[in-house]
UniProtKB/TrEMBL annotation:
Pfam families: Disulph_isomer. The lineage of its organism: Bacteria, Bacillati, Bacillota, Bacilli, Bacillales. InterPro entries: BrxB/BrxA (IPR009474). Signal peptide: none annotated. This is BrxA/BrxB family bacilliredoxin. It comes from the Bacteria.
Length: 144
């Protein structure tokens, strides 16, 4: 039995996608999806750049999940998947200037403007609870 690399990768990353979508986070899979959502999102929008990287994404996704249990959360929740939905990720990263590409990473936008950004180096070697604390602090500051 032969399986294409693309099919294999889709099967491998689906659980990583599900970690976020089951929280109510909407996947933006194309540049058109990104353009339809980010510039018109009124209020606050969380954008998680998902990744297969175990050292960072293994804490990023649980940290996001913990943060979304907070009383104050963003109005909109989105995710793009680095390395999988490459064009959508590249389009989303245009909203994260001046930060260089980083995956995983987490952006908080307010009325389409970046107000808080967590880069990969701020995710690596930190616990999910630390990442959640960083996010909830940003939610308290920008999502009221």
């Amino acid at each position: 039995m032969s399986m294409s690399f693309e099919r294999y990768m889709l099967d491998m990353v689906q659980p990583m996608r599900d970690d976020l979508t089951r929280l109510g986070i909407e996947e933006l899979r194309t540049p058109e999806d990104v353009e339809a959502k980010l510039p018109t999102a009124k209020g606050t929008a969380l954008v998680v750049v998902n990744s297969v990287c175990g050292c960072a994404a293994g804490q990023c996704r649980p940290g996001v999940a913990q943060a979304l249990e907070h009383d104050i959360t963003p109005d909109h929740l989105y995710t793009v998947f680095a390395g999988q939905d490459k064009e959508a990720t590249a389009k989303a990263r245009e909203y994260f200037a001046p930060y260089p590409p980083s995956s995983p990473s987490i952006a908080l936008l307010k009325d389409g403007e970046l107000v808080h950004f967590i880069e990969r180096h701020q995710i690596e070697n930190r616990s999910a609870a630390d990442i959640a604390a960083d996010l909830t602090s940003a939610f308290d500051r920008f999502c009221r």
